[in-house]
Amino acid sequence: MAANDQDIMDFERTRGNLLNISAQKQQLQIQSNALEEALKELGKTPEKKVYKAVGNVLIMSNVDDVKKELQEQKESADLKVKTLQKQEDSTVEKLNKLKHRIESSVKGEENEEQE
């Protein structure tokens, strides 16, 4: 077996991790954007009370309380996006290192075959 088999398996596993991280980040970015839009709309309303969904029911809530809750959810989503971005960057760096090791190993094997 070639010396780079473990690197290839690590590369594939890490690539799968990167896809998962990217998908999670995208979902959180979509959630953050939706929360931002909801906050904008709440800022425009002259109403003091609004309905909010709690499970399968709508309940009347104070606009300021809903704004505060949505802002906290948005901040949490944004923080998670930043964390996932760091994980994504680290994973890309690991993939690049593995790719370089695999390419170097393949070139080394080609050189040995030519001799």
Description of the structure:
The chain is mainly alpha-helical. The protein has a single domain (5-110), classed as Helix Hairpins (Orthogonal Bundle), CATH 1.10.287.370. It is 80% helix and 10% strand. It is built from two helices and two strands. The chain has helices at 5-44, 63-114; strands at residues 49-54, 57-62. It has a two-stranded antiparallel sheet with strand order 1-2. Helix 1 runs antiparallel to helix 2. The longest helix has 52 residues, at 63-114. The radius of gyration is 24 Å and the shape is rod-shaped. The relative contact order is 0.16. The mean pLDDT is 92.
Record the SSE blueprint.
Layout: H1 5-44, E1 49-54, E2 57-62, H2 63-114
Antiparallel strand pairs: 1-2
Features:
two-stranded antiparallel sheet, 10% strand, 2 helices, 80% helix, mainly alpha, Helix Hairpins, single chain, 115 residues
In a nutshell, what does this entry contain?
This protein is mainly α and 115 residues long.
By secondary-structure content and strand pairing, the structural class works out as mainly alpha
The share of residues in helices is: over 70%
What gross morphology would you assign? Answer: rod-shaped
Q: Estimate the mean pLDDT confidence.
A: 92
What topology, given as strand order, has the largest sheet?
A: 1-2
Q: How many domains make up the 3D coordinates?
A: 1
Discrete helix count: 2
**Which range does the strand content fall in?**
5-15%
The CATH topology name reads Helix Hairpins
Uncertain residue ranges: none
CATH top-level class: Mainly Alpha
Biggest sheet descriptor:
2 strands, antiparallel
